[in-house]
Amino acid sequence: MRAFIVDRYKKKGALRLGEVPEPALRDDDVLVEIHAAGLNLLDSKVRDGEFKLILPYRPPFVLGHDVAGIVVRVGSGVRQFKPGDEVYARPRDGRIGTLAQFIAMNEADVALKPKNLSMEEAASIPLVGLTAWQVLVERAKLTKGQKILIHAGSGGVGTFAIQLAKHLGATVATTTSAANAGLVENLGADVVIDYKARDFEKILSGYDVVLNSLDGDTLRKSLDVLKPGGKLISISGPPDPDFAREQGLNWFLRQVLRLLSFGIRRKAKGRRVSYSFLFMRVSGAQLSQITSLIEAGTIRPVMDRVFPFEATNEALAYIETGRSKGKVVVKLR
């Protein structure tokens, strides 16, 4: 089958379009013919080697973390899906590879595709949807009447998180450029701050939660926004000791991550707020809950561009500019 392959870790290195064997099917797997694959900054970071200490893929490997397609075969132990089902998923770490014609995934990672979405729209959802769900619902336990600041509101995670936070009844502030103010307002943002013109930390205060997806400077400034007991949750790092334990990392890597996050954890403690790092985990069950929200019209996908499969390298380069509004997807069929 045709696939985009990482031959070696290299910053901004081009993926190679080549032939690889069709994936083997395990007893609890579904084999999916891929119709569309969502792209994420995570793909670029994995290709660049930024995660090779905690996600040790051995080149050559197929890249890609978001998929929508049709089940063509199921393993002997599969009970939830059958050939012909339209599904979407974020395959688990160690078994990525959605930039290909087929992928085998554990059925626990997969959900039925929302009926009201195209394959391209569905492929834009899993990684950002699960990330937003796990930050807002699981980690923050966001409730009606609380206030949340969502950084980079026009990005993939941001566009989903704004809608989910409004559904949960929160007041939502977000940072974005002036050009994207209308987009985030339409998604439900109550307070929109042009990060190029205004300092969010001087405007906002008394917030319950901050979702950070930006750099360390933004992370530190976000402490000023939170009230005592508030939660600073970052999906861009630095990883913390709890994450190291969850990943089962060795003693040396646990100490490295402890040092990397020591500064922000200490500052947070001094402000009487909590800091935590979240690295999304796969869950077909949570995706099914997200499907219900999408089919009810509560959340809609926000897509910037759809590229042909052959232009995957150009699509990744476009994401890396940081200017995409919502998600970028490649179309295979």
UniProtKB/TrEMBL annotation:
Identify a single GO molecular function assigned to this protein: zinc ion binding
**Annotated ranges, domain Enoyl reductase (ER):** 13-330
InterPro entries per the record?
ADH-like_N (IPR013154), ER (IPR020843), GroES-like_sf (IPR011032), NAD(P)-bd_dom_sf (IPR036291), Quin_OxRdtase/zeta-crystal_CS (IPR002364), YIM1/Zinc_Alcohol_DH_Fams (IPR050700)
Keyword Oxidoreductase listed: yes
Its organism's taxonomic lineage begins at: Bacteria, Pseudomonadati, Pseudomonadota, Alphaproteobacteria, Hyphomicrobiales
Going by the entry's taxonomy, the superkingdom of the source organism is recorded as Bacteria
Q: Does the keyword Oxidoreductase apply?
A: yes
Q: Which UniProt keywords apply?
A: Oxidoreductase
Gene3D superfamilies this protein is in?
Answer: Medium-chain alcohol dehydrogenases, catalytic domain, NAD(P)-binding Rossmann-like Domain
Its recorded name reads NADPH:quinone oxidoreductase
What PROSITE patterns does this protein's entry cite? QOR_ZETA_CRYSTAL (PS01162)
